[in-house]
Amino acid sequence: TTGRGAPQGYPIAPVIKVCGNPRTSEKLSEHIDVDVSDVITKNKTLEEAAEKVFEKLVKVASGEKTNAEITGYDKTIDIYVRGIIL
């Protein structure tokens, strides 16, 4: 994610949301499938982060639902905005 954490989901294919921003991962945890911010915060390696992503990919390919599927978020062309809009 870019840090804004737009919870994209698509009805025809699962979306695995990967986030490397610790604040976004915390604030939008219900939308994030794989939090790899520990590369920054805990000196984990990129290889360890890649392993986390790969493990999730295998689980989703085996039938596990993504957070977008669990929450029912399948808005394919929405622009996600947090906060007040004037």
Question: Describe it for me?
Answer:
The protein has a domain at 18-71. Helices cover 36% and strands 5% of the residues. The protein is built from four helices and two strands. The protein has helices at residues 22-27, 38-41, 46-61, 67-71; strands at 18-19, 34-35. A two-stranded parallel sheet has the order 1-2. α1 links the parallel β1 and β2. The mean pLDDT is 86.
Unreliable stretches covering 5 or more consecutive residues = none
Distance between the termini: 25 Å
- pLDDT averaged over residues: 86
**If helices are DSSP runs of H or I spanning 4 or more residues, what is the number of helices?**
4
- Beta fraction: under 5%
Rg, alpha carbons = 14 Å
Helix proportion range: 25-40%
What structural category arises from helix and sheet content? mainly alpha
User: Which of globular, elongated, flat, extended, rod-shaped describes the shape?
Assistant: flat
- Spatial strand arrangement across the major sheet: 1-2
Main beta sheet: strand number and arrangement? 2 strands, parallel
